[in-house]
Amino acid sequence: QGNFFDEFQMEGVAAEHNEIYLELVPENLSRALKTAQSAKAVKIKLTNKHCPCLRVAVELPTLSSSSRIVTHDIPVGVIPRRLWNDFREPSVPDFDVSIYLPVLKTMKSVVERMKNLSNSLVIEANLSGEMNLKIETDLVSVTTHFKDLGNPPWASEDECESSAQGRDLESMAEARIDIKKLQQLLAGQQVNPTKALCNIVNKRIVHFILLHEDVSLQYFIPALA
C-alpha cells in the first residue's frame, strides 16, 4: 500500500489475519477510476450500507473554494475465510528454463497469425536466450524464432534450486499450450511492463511474470496433454 496511498487504514477479519478478500467486476472499478485522472485526491473505502461496496470518492479540481466530489459505489462480494485457500498464489514446480520475453506487441502479432492455423502452440526456450513459438498441423508447420533474449540471473546461479541448475545451455524445454489462452494474456496488456519473464516446466506448465513499476502480474498456463 505504500506505493499507492498517502494514508492507509486497515482492519482485517482478525489480528493474525489482517486481510479482506473481495470479488468485483474489473470494468466497474476501471470506469470509476477514469473520473479520477485529474483528481486532487481519491479515497477508497469499504462500506456496507445496503450491500458490501467499494466507495470511490473523487475530489475534482474547482475554481471556487467549494469542493466538488464525485462518489462511485461499486458492489463487491466478500470472500468468506473458509474459501481463502482457493485464492492463494499457486506454488510453481522447479522450472527447467527461465527466459526474458521478446517485445509483447511483436509476440502478440505472431500469436494472432498462428491462431488462425491451430488451436495449440508449442513454446520452447533454452538457457542461451533462444525461444521458439511453433505450430504443427497435418497441413502446415510454422516456427517463429527469437534469439538474444537473455536469461534472468537466477536461471544459472549455483545456489538456484531449480532444475535449470546444471542444464545444457542449448537444450530446449517446451510445453504445448492453448493458443487462445496465450492470446488473451497478450491482448490484455495495456501497459508495457518494464520486464517480462517466462518460466517453463517441461511439458507441464508455462509461468509468465510481467513486472511493472509498482506491481507484478503472474499468469499460469498449464500444458496440454
TrEMBL record:
What is the protein's major site of localization? Answer: nucleus
Q: Which InterPro entries match?
A: HUS1, HUS1/Mec3
Task: List the coiled-coil residues.
Answer: none
Mind naming one GO cellular-component term on file for this protein?
Answer: checkpoint clamp complex
Q: Which UniProt keywords apply?
A: Nucleus
| Gene Ontology process terms (BP) | double-strand break repair via homologous recombination; meiotic DNA integrity checkpoint signaling; mitotic DNA replication checkpoint signaling; mitotic intra-S DNA damage checkpoint signaling; nucleotide-excision repair; telomere maintenance
Q: Which domain of life is it from?
A: Eukaryota
Q: Where in the cell is it found?
A: Nucleus
Q: Which Pfam families match?
A: Hus1 (PF04005)
Q: Which PANTHER family match?
A: CHECKPOINT PROTEIN, MITOTIC AND DNA DAMAGE CHECKPOINT PROTEIN HUS1
Q: Which family does it belong to?
A: Belongs to the HUS1 family.
Instruction: List the protein's name.
Output: HUS1 protein
What taxonomic classification does the UniProt entry list for its organism? Answer: Eukaryota, Metazoa, Chordata, Craniata, Vertebrata
